[in-house]
Each structure stands twice: as C-alpha cells, then as structure tokens.
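thought: user wants a sequence for this fold. calling inverse folding tool.
action: design(structure=
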C-alpha cells in the first residue's frame, strides 16, 4: 500500500475512535465549540483527501488523466446541486469521452 493510503486509513481509524469514544468519555456533556467544529469537519476532509489521492495518484507518482476531468465535472455538478445520479453519470461520461478522444 502507498504511504498516502496508509495515512488515510490511519486518520480514518483515529476519527472513528474519537467519534465512538466521545460519548463514553463525555457522558452527557457537550464538547467545547472548537473541538466540536474539528470533529464535524474531519470526515469531510478525509473524504476530500481520499478523492484527491484516488484521482491524482498512480502508485507513488502523480498523474493527470481522464479521472481528473471526471472529478472536475462531478465537482461542478455538486456545486450546481445536481442529484447524485446525475453527478455520477456526468462524471463517468466526461471521463469516457476524454479516454475516447485520447
């Protein structure tokens, strides 16, 4: 496994442990606002990192190919609040068209 994937797995595991251990440790008390903000944003950051690694990495090298176009199209579709199925189909179609043209 590449170091990036190992890092993501470790971070995801730590996030899972924190999220599952917090109710046990804190009981009924609320988290401090700063910690709660970090806990809320961590899964989104990990998902974003996973998308970036999956899009730009092949082994241990950086690559730019049809996946980048598909990811950009998906990002624009999400930004425009398209339904999930439309996002997936648009990203697949864009990647397929780039591969067809290449």
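)
observation: tool returned 102 residues.
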């Amino acid at each position: 496994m590449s170091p990036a994937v190992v890092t993501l797995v470790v971070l995801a595991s730590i996030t899972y442990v924190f999220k599952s251990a917090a109710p046990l440790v804190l009981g009924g008390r609320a988290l401090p606002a700063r910690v709660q903000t970090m806990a809320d944003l961590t899964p989104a950051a990990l998902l974003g990192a996973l998308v970036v690694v999956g899009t730009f990495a092949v082994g241990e090298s950086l690559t730019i190919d049809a996946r980048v176009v598909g990811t950009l199209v998906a990002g624009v579709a999400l930004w425009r609040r398209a339904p999930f199925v439309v996002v997936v189909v648009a990203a697949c179609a864009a990647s397929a068209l780039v591969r067809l043209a290449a």
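thought: summarizing for user.
answer: Here is the designed sequence. The longest strand covers residues 57-58.
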